[in-house]
Write a structure and sequence with these properties.
The chain is of the alpha/beta class and about 350 residues long. It has one domain: 3-Layer(aba) Sandwich (Rossmann fold). About 45% of the residues lie in helices and about 15% in strands. It has 12 helices and 12 strands. The strands form 3 sheets. It has a 7-stranded parallel beta sheet, with helices on both faces.
């Protein structure tokens, strides 16, 4: 995958830079010569890439909540971004059951704040709003969702992401005319895994914590099918989409799926098997009942033909490679002696992805 010099010297406003995906994207953009202004909440783990790679020394960073509308307006007005990647979100399904109002407030109002700030600043820019594969109305059928399918969402997180898509579409239609200065697209990724994710209540971080402690991993829904993909896959899609917005403008200002090949849609039990096999050292997993009996989707797939044809984007790593690199990556990051070693590991992974190896 080659972005040429698309981001060289560009001012890039990145929201959610302290998160798992945001940290990897911050390093990648910095490596491509972008002037990155990242915002986010305080990192939720000292073991994540933002802290371990000391990314705040590579990019401009501010700890701020996207619900602070006045500060969002000030950043848009003074930084004058050429490109915006909006990743900041309350990103956990089960947390959305605990605090649904905060989930909607962050994901819907926070997104509206970012887009309104850009509207008021009237600065030419390309905007990629990252939502989720869970934005679709999930009918629990053997069907890969396409970009034109209806939005939905059973749980508050999924519904908030469907709402986020509607907010983005509204701003595009109402304020960002096709021939205007601001070109806005949305990106929907699959279930993203990879080294450096330490979020609570996600299958891979839960597995690594259990394996490291010498305990079996407990899995709630081992037969639930998800479109697993390495973190660099959707980030490559976001970067390709941002590049296309800069080069083609309104022609690509719409919604896009960035999921894995169909063979990577595997059930959670298969993922747990592969993780345990790759990790080694006698680790194991066990099935347990959903303790709160909360609804979770059992089948979810994305159709990525549109991105293949129109953006010339396609997945690089298959399911087995994704799991292997994820497990090995956690092990490498955990033993890395300093920030530069973590950065070098991340740079090597990005180089391998870009070369397709």
């Amino acid at each position: 995958m080659n972005f040429n010099s698309a981001y060289q010297g560009k001012r890039v406003w990145l929201t959610g830079d302290t998160g798992f995906k945001g940290s990897w994207l911050a390093l990648w953009l910095n490596q491509m010569g972008a002037d990155v202004f990242g915002i986010g909440l305080a990192p939720d783990s000292r073991e994540g890439p933002f802290v371990r790679a000391d990314l705040s020394s590579l990019i401009r960073h501010e700890t701020v909540d996207i619900r602070d509308a006045a500060r969002m307006e000030e950043i848009a007005r003074t930084f004058k971004p050429d490109v915006v990647f909006h990743l900041a979100a309350q990103a956990l399904v089960r947390q959305s059951y605990v605090d649904p109002v905060e989930t909607f407030d962050t994901n819907v109002r926070g997104t509206a704040n970012i887009l309104n700030a850009l509207r008021l600043a009237v600065n030419p820019c390309a905007v990629v709003v990252v939502t989720s594969d869970k934005c679709y109305e999930n009918r629990e059928e053997d069907y890969a969702y396409r970009e034109a399918d209806p939005m939905g969402g059973h749980d508050p997180y999924s519904a908030s992401k469907g709402c986020e898509e509607l907010v983005a579409a509204s701003f595009r239609l109402a304020f960002f005319a096709p021939a205007g200065k601001i070109q806005l697209a949305t990106a929907r990724a699959g279930n993203v895994i990879g080294p450096g994710d330490w979020a609570a209540d996600r299958i891979v971080p839960d597995a690594i914590r259990a394996f490291r402690a010498g305990k079996p991993l407990s899995v709630r829904n081992p037969r639930a099918v998800r479109p697993w993909q390495h973190v660099l896959e959707p980030l490559g899609g976001y970067l390709r989409l941002g590049q296309a917005l800069l080069e083609e403008g309104a022609a690509v200002a719409e919604g896009w799926n960035f999921g894995p090949d169909p063979a990577s849609a595997q059930d959670v039990g298969t993922l747990a098997d592969q993780l345990a096999k790759t990790w080694g050292r006698g680790v194991s997993w066990q099935s347990e009942a959903n303790p709160a009996n909360l609804h979770e989707a059992h089948l979810l797939q994305l159709n990525i033909e549109k991105a293949r044809v129109r953006l010339d984007w396609r997945p690089v790593w298959d399911f087995e490679t994704t799991v292997r690199r994820t497990a090995a990556g956690y092990q490498a990051m955990m033993v890395a002696p300093d920030a530069e070693a973590v950065r070098q590991f991340m740079r090597d992974e990005i180089a391998a992805y870009e070369s397709g190896t």
